[in-house]
Write a structure and sequence with these properties.
Rossmann fold, 2 domains, 241 residues, 5-stranded parallel β-sheet, 50% helix, Helix Hairpins
Length: 241
């Protein structure tokens, strides 16, 4: 996927901000104008900052490290989860558990518990479990899967997070900042862009706007991963030679 053009961003509604009374003054450099009480985002700035974010996140992917996608808003969760799976990246799209990164060891224990339940349920030779106990375990497993399924394969903290709606996901932002994890995020006119390492000014409410930006970021991650594979293959050939 090529970088979204100005027209494509416009058609996706990426320029539509919040009502003026809800704005964050720190977003002033990214606002083009006000129309009927609504702030209009400068799409030239969106394009510029999308370039910056893409360059940086590509390097993260090329290094072999993980980028965690965070989007628990109703209109963002399903498309973002799907895009994260495309690049085998961790994602949180149901609910952010407090301490998901700052108390990562506890999260890993919960994931281990989920995996142990899977083994128990899959082992047909286990006869000590009653039907009622099996039903209880299945319910518990499904509950854990819903919240932790997207991070089940995450063995260590991600190098970066990509966030849709930095106001809504303020707890994730706070944890990432505390741990020094790079933050990429779509920032609307009610956001504080100074909390984000690589802000992308755009509408974070419209599904089309979220999708066009997240899709591009995903493609850039794919490119980084592909370049890493090629470099590794070249290194192996040199070693053999």
């Amino acid at each position: 996927m090529a970088k979204p053009t100005y027209k494509e961003l416009l058609d996706a509604g990426a320029h539509m901000g919040h009502m003026k009374r809800k704005w964050n003054p720190k977003m002033l450099p990214y606002i083009f104008m006000e129309r009927k009480g609504i702030h209009i985002i400068d799409l030239n700035r969106t394009s510029e900052y999308l370039d910056r974010a893409a360059t940086a996140i590509k390097q993260v992917a090329k290094s072999g490290r993980k980028v965690m996608f965070v989007a628990t808003k109703k209109q963002a969760k399903e498309p973002v989860a799907g895009l994260a799976r495309e690049v085998n990246m961790p994602h949180v799209t149901e609910r952010w558990l407090g301490g998901m990164m700052t108390n990562f060891s506890t999260i890993k224990r919960s994931v281990k518990k989920m995996n142990n339940i899977d083994k128990m349920l899959a082992d047909e030779g286990v006869t000590s479990i009653t039907k009622k106990e099996r039903l209880t375990l299945t319910r518990e497993r499904n509950k854990l899967e819903k919240v932790l399924g997207g991070v089940a394969n995450l063995n260590r903290l991600p190098a970066a997070i990509f966030v849709v709606d930095t106001v809504h996901e303020h707890i994730a932002i706070k944890e990432a900042r505390k741990l020094g994890i790079k933050i990429f995020g779509i920032v609307d006119t009610n956001s504080d862009p100074t909390l984000i390492d690589f802000p992308i000014p755009a509408n974070d409410d419209a599904a089309k706007s979220i999708n066009i930006i997240t899709s591009y970021i995903t493609e850039v991650i794919k490119e980084g991963m592909s370049e890493r594979r090629k470099e590794n293959e070249a290194s192996k050939k040199e070693a053999v030679a």
